[in-house]
Every structure is written in C-alpha cells, then in structure tokens.
Amino acid sequence: MGRKEIDKQRRTMLQLGAAVPLAALSSALPASVATAQAAARDPAAAHDGRHDFDFYFGRWRVENRRLAKRLVGSDDWIEFEATDECRPVLGGLGSVDRYQTDWNGGIEGFALRLYRPQTRQWHVYWASDRDGVLEPPLIGGFRDGVGLFQGEELHEGKLLPSRARWTDIRADSVRWEQALSPDSGKSWETNWVMRMTRLA
Q1: Predicted TM-score (pTM) of this structure
Q2: 16: buried, middle or exposed (CB in 10 Å: 19+, 13-18, 0-12)?
Q3: Cα dihedral sign for 54, 47, 181, 158?
Q4: How far apart are the first and last CA of the chain?
C-alpha cells in the first residue's frame, strides 16, 4: 500500500472518529440551541410571537352571537353587545382583557394571555364573575394572519376538545369564534362568535 492510500485511510478514520462524539453531543444540546436548529430547518418556527396580540390593545365594542344550547343541533342564536379592553402586561409577554356586558343580568369576564418564548406558544386563560374559576388554557399561536388556540372545556360533566380562532384582523376590527367538538376533533360546532370594532 502506497503512502497516498495510507494518508487517505487515516483521513477517513479521523473523520469517522469525530462524527461519533459530535452526533452524541448534538443529542444533548440545550433546548435553546435545539430550537434555533429547528428554526433553521423551518423558517415559520423562527417567528417570535410575543407581539402577535399587540393589534388588540385598546377598547372594543363587541357584537356577540352565542348559541342558546350547545351540541344539540340548535340554530337558536342569542345576540347581545359588550365592551372589551385589552392592555399589555409583563413587558409584552402577556396581556389582560376586561370584558363587560349587561346581558343576562350582567357579566364581567377576564382573559389572561401569556407567551412562552421557549415554545413560541400562547396560553390563553378565561375567568368570569359567575364562578371566579380560571379555566384551563387554550394553547396556540398565529400563522398566516390566523390565530388558532386549542385545549379542552368542561361541557355537561365531560372534557371536550375546544378551540378558538382569530380571523379578519384589521386595524379597527377583528373576528373571534369558539367551537367544541363532540367526537374528538372530527367535527366542530361553533357556539360563540364575536365581532369587535375598535372604540376611540
């Protein structure tokens, strides 16, 4: 075997020897590095969504349409008005809403949104003065101008898949809707629609 062939084999062995520890090292990378690598492979994953709800800061007039009864095939919608006011908290990593309506004896609601930079997802919580319970969060984010948030909601003693969508987002108007699924996400029934118009 000539010197050139020996040198070639040495180079190959060195390359293979380096590849093994590097492969082992890559599996132990911190989450932040792993996230950066995932972002490099998928540009959509690189989006930092902490400002995705900035469009909603301010005061809004809310036109509500809500099903009188859910998941019974009803087409009986109740319509009423409300106001909603949103402001940022935690230096932009969250926002809170105060929702108020005179409908049904008067209701005050509270929405809390918290953004987690590690997962690039929002966790959206809701509570009202009816029971003071902070409900389990809907989790998600925005893509191509649409916000999709999913979780579970208690309905007649059963936890069912729940989702909320933000669409038609403009400077002074936006649409929000909520839906439940009775069959593990195969079909959805929209039970609440809000159309918000910005107030001065």
Answers
A1: 0.77
A2: exposed
A3: negative
A4: 86
